[in-house]
Amino acid sequence: MEQQRVCLVIEDDADIRGLITAVLSRASFEVWAVGTGAEGIAAAADPAISLVTLDLGLPDMDGHVVARAIRALSGAPLLFLSARSEEDDILAGMASGAAIYLTKPFHPRELKELALQLCPAIDTAGHTSPPAVPVASASRPPVSQE
Predict the structure, then answer these.
(1) Cα–Cα dist 102/55, whole Å
(2) Are 39 and 10 in contact (CB under 8 A)?
(3) I need a labelling partner for 29 at 20 to 30 A (CA). Which of 7, 16, 89, 130 fits?
(4) pLDDT averaged over the chain?
Protein backbone atom coordinates (compact mmCIF):
# COMPACT_ATOMS: atom_id res chain seq x y z
CA MET A 1 0.00 0.00 0.00
CA GLU A 2 1.24 3.47 -0.90
CA GLN A 3 1.48 6.38 1.54
CA GLN A 4 -0.23 9.57 0.42
CA ARG A 5 2.18 12.25 -0.80
CA VAL A 6 1.11 15.85 -0.24
CA CYS A 7 1.91 18.56 -2.77
CA LEU A 8 1.47 22.22 -1.92
CA VAL A 9 0.59 24.23 -5.04
CA ILE A 10 1.26 27.97 -4.80
CA GLU A 11 -0.23 29.61 -7.90
CA ASP A 12 -2.28 32.79 -8.22
CA ASP A 13 -4.00 31.95 -11.53
CA ALA A 14 -7.08 29.86 -10.71
CA ASP A 15 -7.08 28.03 -14.08
CA ILE A 16 -3.42 27.01 -13.82
CA ARG A 17 -3.89 26.12 -10.15
CA GLY A 18 -6.79 23.86 -11.18
CA LEU A 19 -4.73 22.23 -13.94
CA ILE A 20 -1.78 21.55 -11.61
CA THR A 21 -4.18 20.17 -8.99
CA ALA A 22 -5.82 17.84 -11.52
CA VAL A 23 -2.49 16.57 -12.90
CA LEU A 24 -0.96 15.91 -9.50
CA SER A 25 -4.15 14.38 -8.08
CA ARG A 26 -4.13 11.88 -10.94
CA ALA A 27 -0.50 11.13 -10.03
CA SER A 28 -1.68 10.07 -6.55
CA PHE A 29 -0.77 13.25 -4.70
CA GLU A 30 -3.03 14.87 -2.16
CA VAL A 31 -2.99 18.51 -3.29
CA TRP A 32 -3.28 21.59 -1.13
CA ALA A 33 -3.62 24.67 -3.34
CA VAL A 34 -3.24 28.33 -2.36
CA GLY A 35 -3.18 31.59 -4.33
CA THR A 36 -0.70 33.79 -2.46
CA GLY A 37 2.83 33.64 -1.16
CA ALA A 38 1.74 34.30 2.43
CA GLU A 39 -0.72 31.38 2.33
CA GLY A 40 2.00 29.20 0.80
CA ILE A 41 4.54 30.00 3.49
CA ALA A 42 2.00 29.27 6.22
CA ALA A 43 0.99 25.95 4.64
CA ALA A 44 4.60 24.89 3.99
CA ALA A 45 5.26 24.69 7.72
CA ASP A 46 3.16 21.51 7.85
CA PRO A 47 5.48 18.48 8.01
CA ALA A 48 3.09 16.51 5.77
CA ILE A 49 4.21 18.51 2.72
CA SER A 50 6.37 16.33 0.46
CA LEU A 51 6.53 18.58 -2.65
CA VAL A 52 5.92 22.27 -3.39
CA THR A 53 5.12 23.77 -6.78
CA LEU A 54 5.70 27.50 -6.82
CA ASP A 55 4.83 30.25 -9.28
CA LEU A 56 7.27 33.17 -9.16
CA GLY A 57 4.72 35.84 -10.16
CA LEU A 58 2.53 36.01 -7.08
CA PRO A 59 0.28 38.98 -6.24
CA ASP A 60 1.53 39.60 -2.70
CA MET A 61 5.28 38.89 -2.83
CA ASP A 62 8.10 37.78 -5.07
CA GLY A 63 8.31 34.02 -5.55
CA HIS A 64 12.02 34.00 -4.67
CA VAL A 65 11.18 35.44 -1.24
CA VAL A 66 8.52 32.75 -0.82
CA ALA A 67 11.01 30.04 -1.87
CA ARG A 68 13.62 31.16 0.66
CA ALA A 69 11.00 31.29 3.43
CA ILE A 70 9.76 27.80 2.54
CA ARG A 71 13.32 26.49 2.39
CA ALA A 72 13.77 27.70 6.00
CA LEU A 73 10.64 25.76 7.05
CA SER A 74 10.71 22.62 4.96
CA GLY A 75 13.00 20.19 3.22
CA ALA A 76 10.36 19.37 0.59
CA PRO A 77 11.63 19.79 -2.97
CA LEU A 78 10.57 22.96 -4.77
CA LEU A 79 9.36 22.72 -8.36
CA PHE A 80 9.19 26.21 -9.85
CA LEU A 81 6.55 26.86 -12.51
CA SER A 82 7.07 30.24 -14.13
CA ALA A 83 6.55 32.18 -17.33
CA ARG A 84 9.95 33.75 -16.68
CA SER A 85 12.19 31.82 -19.05
CA GLU A 86 15.40 33.84 -19.42
CA GLU A 87 18.62 32.17 -18.29
CA ASP A 88 19.03 34.71 -15.46
CA ASP A 89 15.52 33.86 -14.22
CA ILE A 90 16.30 30.16 -14.19
CA LEU A 91 19.61 30.68 -12.40
CA ALA A 92 17.94 32.93 -9.82
CA GLY A 93 15.28 30.24 -9.30
CA MET A 94 17.87 27.58 -8.72
CA ALA A 95 19.71 29.88 -6.31
CA SER A 96 16.43 30.37 -4.41
CA GLY A 97 16.15 26.65 -3.78
CA ALA A 98 14.38 25.16 -6.81
CA ALA A 99 15.06 21.50 -7.46
CA ILE A 100 13.52 21.91 -10.92
CA TYR A 101 12.55 25.00 -12.91
CA LEU A 102 9.76 24.39 -15.43
CA THR A 103 8.66 27.19 -17.72
CA LYS A 104 5.06 27.96 -18.68
CA PRO A 105 3.41 26.85 -20.79
CA PHE A 106 4.23 23.33 -19.71
CA HIS A 107 2.93 19.92 -20.75
CA PRO A 108 0.84 18.25 -18.03
CA ARG A 109 2.64 14.94 -18.62
CA GLU A 110 5.99 16.65 -18.08
CA LEU A 111 4.78 18.14 -14.80
CA LYS A 112 3.59 14.72 -13.65
CA GLU A 113 6.88 13.03 -14.57
CA LEU A 114 8.98 15.68 -12.83
CA ALA A 115 6.79 15.60 -9.71
CA LEU A 116 7.15 11.82 -9.55
CA GLN A 117 10.91 12.14 -10.00
CA LEU A 118 11.16 14.60 -7.11
CA CYS A 119 8.76 12.70 -4.87
CA PRO A 120 8.61 8.99 -5.68
CA ALA A 121 5.88 6.87 -4.13
CA ILE A 122 6.68 5.23 -0.79
CA ASP A 123 4.84 2.11 0.29
CA THR A 124 3.86 1.47 3.89
CA ALA A 125 6.95 -0.73 4.34
CA GLY A 126 9.13 2.29 3.52
CA HIS A 127 10.19 1.14 0.04
CA THR A 128 10.53 3.80 -2.65
CA SER A 129 9.13 2.95 -6.06
CA PRO A 130 10.72 4.30 -9.24
CA PRO A 131 8.93 7.00 -11.25
CA ALA A 132 6.20 5.63 -13.51
CA VAL A 133 7.99 7.00 -16.59
CA PRO A 134 11.77 7.40 -16.84
CA VAL A 135 12.77 11.03 -16.40
CA ALA A 136 14.86 10.89 -19.57
CA SER A 137 11.59 10.83 -21.53
CA ALA A 138 10.66 14.34 -20.38
CA SER A 139 10.57 16.75 -23.30
CA ARG A 140 12.95 19.18 -21.60
CA PRO A 141 15.66 18.14 -19.17
CA PRO A 142 15.51 19.86 -15.78
CA VAL A 143 18.08 22.56 -15.15
CA SER A 144 20.68 21.39 -12.64
CA GLN A 145 22.69 23.42 -10.16
CA GLU A 146 25.98 22.08 -11.48
Answers:
(1) 10
(2) yes
(3) 89
(4) 85
pLDDT tens track for 1-11: 456 899 999 99
Distance CA 82, CA 88 (A): 13
pLDDT in tens, 35-48: 999 999 999 999 99
DSSP assignment letter at 97? T
pLDDT class of 122 with cuts at 50, 70, 90? low
3-state secondary structure of 33: strand
Q: Is the pLDDT of residue 130 over 80?
A: no
Reference 104, options 3, 16, 14, 38; nearest CA is: 16
Inter-CA distances, 101 with 2, 39, 44, 108, 111, Å? 27, 21, 19, 14, 11
Name which of 136, 98, 105 is nearest 16 in CA terms. Answer: 105
Q: How many CB atoms lie within 10 A of CB 66?
A: 27
Q: What sign does the CA torsion over 63, 13, 31, 25 have?
A: negative
The rounded distance, in Å, linking the Cα atoms of 128 and 19 is: 26
d(CA 6, CA 127): 17
Helix (H) or strand (E) holding 30: strand 29-34
